[in-house]
Amino acid sequence: MKVLGIESSCDETAAAVVENGTKILSNQVASQVAIHARYGGVVPEVASRQHLLAIVPVIKRALADAGAGWEDLGGIAVTNGPGLAGSLLVGLNAAKAIALARRLPLTGVNHLEGHIYANWLSGENPCFPLVCLTVSGGHSDLVLMRGHGDYVLLGRTRDDAAGEAFDKAARILGLGYPGGPAIEKAAQGYQATIPLPRAWIKGSHDFSFSGLKTALFRLVEAGKVENPAEAAASFQQAVVEVLVAKAIAAARKHRVKHILLAGGVAANRPLRQRLIKHSPLPVLVPKLSLCTDNAAMIAACGYFRLRAGKTDGLDLDVIPGLKIG
Ligand code: KG4
Ligand code: ZN
After folding, report:
1. Does the structural domain 127-285 have CATH classification 1.10.340.30?
2. Is the model's pTM score more than 0.90?
C-alpha cells in the first residue's frame, strides 16, 4: 500500500510517498532554514505563510516523483502535533482536502512517533521490544516501544531539549543557526579539553541540559573561551556522553533487542558513533537525510497506523503540545 505523508510542523514543508511503510518512492522537503536563519530561530508567522506557498507544489512533486496518481494511494498520513499551530494547520488542511476529495483514509501522526519510524526506512527491521532515543529541536525522549504504536515514556528532558541546547550553545559561541550542524562542523578535529558539567540525574532516565548551557555561557562571558571550536567540541562531548549512557542504561534495564536513535540530533556523527561503539546491543540509526524533519517518516508511521485500523475523521485537529507515551 502506498501512503502519502505530509509534514509541516515546524520549518520544513514536506511530502513523500512510501510503500508498505518501508520503501521510499519519493521524498520532497522544501526547507525554510535560509529564511529563518537571519532571525536566529524559527519565526512562527513567517513559517505558516511559507507552508501555504509551498504545500501544493511540494505534494504535486512528491506524487510526480513517485510516478503515482491519486488512484494509487491507499491513505494519507499527516503530522497533527506537536509543533507550531499555524504551521501544523497548513499540512492538516491539505491532507483533509485530499482525503475528502479522493475518498482516502486519513490518519494523524504524532511527529515524534514519525521520527522513530525513520528507522523503518533504512532497509533494517527493528525488533520489539526496543528503546528509542528521540532527540530533536523540541524534545529529548527516551521511549520503550513494545510493538507498533505501543510506547512507554521512560525519560524526558526537564528543561532544554538536546537540539535546543545545541542551538543555544551555537548562539553563545557565535557559530550560527541551526546550531547542531554548526557545532558538529566547528568541533571537527578538536578535543573536548574544557571541563563542562554533565547532569546525570542518578536513578532517573530524565535529561537536563540547561546547567551545561549556563556553564558554557559563564565561561564565554568571563572571556575564558579562546577558541570557539574547542568549546564546541567540549559541549558536544558533554551532551553526547549523557545521551549515550542513558540510552544504554534504559536498554539494559528493559532487556530490549534494539536501540534506535531518532530526531534531528540523531544526525550528529559523534553521537551515532559513540552509541554504536558503546552499546552492548545492536543499534539502528536512520540515514542522515531522514533524521531531520521529513514526510517519509510520517508516511511510514501512517502506514502502520492505517494497517492497525487507526483512521481519523475530518474533525481531526492539530495538537501543538502532543506528547508520546
Ligand atoms: O527533528 P528536527 O529536524 O526538528 C524538530 O522536530 O525539532 O530537529 C532539529 C534539531 C535542531 O535543534 C538542530 O540543531 C538539531 O536538530 N540538529 C543537530 C544536527 N543536525 C540537526 N544537532 C546536532 N548535530 C547535528 N548534526
Ligand atoms: Zn522533528
Report:
1. no
2. yes
